[in-house]
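Re: [help] complex structure
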Amino acid sequence: MNLLDLARPEIRALAPYASARALADSAGILLNANENPYPPPGDSGQDLNRYPDPQPAALKSRLAALYGIDADQLLLTRGSDEGIDLLMRAFVRAGQDRVLTCPPCFGMYALSARIQGGEVIEVPLIETESDWQLDVEGIQAAPACRLYFLCSPNNPTGNRIPTSQVLDLAERVSGHGLVIIDEAYIEFSADESLAGQVGSVPNLVVLRTLSKAYALAGCRLGAVIGSAELIGLLRRIIAPYPLPTPSIQAALQALDAPNDQRHQLEELDRQKQRLVLVLKDHPAIERIWPGAANFILVRTRPGSALVSAAADAGIRLRDQSAQPGLNDCVRITVGRPEETDHLIQFLRSWSP
Ligand SMILES: Cc1ncc(COP(=O)(O)O)c(C=O)c1O
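Output below.
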């Protein structure tokens, strides 16, 4: 079965839009894109008057090397949010196709599916004694879906999904669906990415982002990793110039400083361990899921009291009560040492 047979027929039939930069490189006298020939005030050699390369080769090859894949297996996107949206638009026929999610999970999977007119099938994670896990049997019993969204480490529960479960699912649904594994937080865990598997598992798609461990949330840069055919298909529907020049430059700089990133990850882990100790000891915290990412999920009753008391102390936490299974749960992102000091000071003086 060819993966492209699962795509919407009208998307398969589209001829990609050929932008000026895609048709010709940016050498010579550029009179082909209706740009202003003068750089804007403040431009320090960035050429912001010029449209950016739609898929900048230097950044693509840096990320392909980082993720251990070929450059043609990667599409650069405006954050993984855009990757999620492109997959919906390419594969989900409004009123016909289903998208499976495993809540509690990142809300954009269901929102994007609904915007596209897809039906969302929810197979909630199972809460175990110690953690959360996929309901493998529930997923097997669910009606056939076009897209299956998994996330490891998962937001907001922090649990990881064993590689074997992801690959088994991809094999089981290969006739009718794609399995998307969102690895937004993988750099915070010791897990190995599934990116290297996309060459041998055609219906597997991996989402990565520079928003979290690479500290570039403001640049909006993510990547869809999949078979070259899938990437070619998504290129037909992505905006002609999705990536702003300053974002591309900032990403190249960040990728040139791997030691800075490693130090940040180590520091964040130290702060996380400090917080875990305080939360475990706290009489009002009923349950804590430290997880494998840069956040901690806790349960305290009522969760809203923690969120509002923290807000009064100038600290913003995220109430997760609206998610299935997460009554009175609050997600706490790990911050800098001084932010952790404030949070710990607040927690020591707080009781609901
Ligand atoms: C699991 C997960 N996936 C994707 C995203 C979106 O990330 P990006 O900034 O790359 O769009 C987030 C953001 O919080 C997330 O938690």
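The chain has a mean pLDDT of 96.
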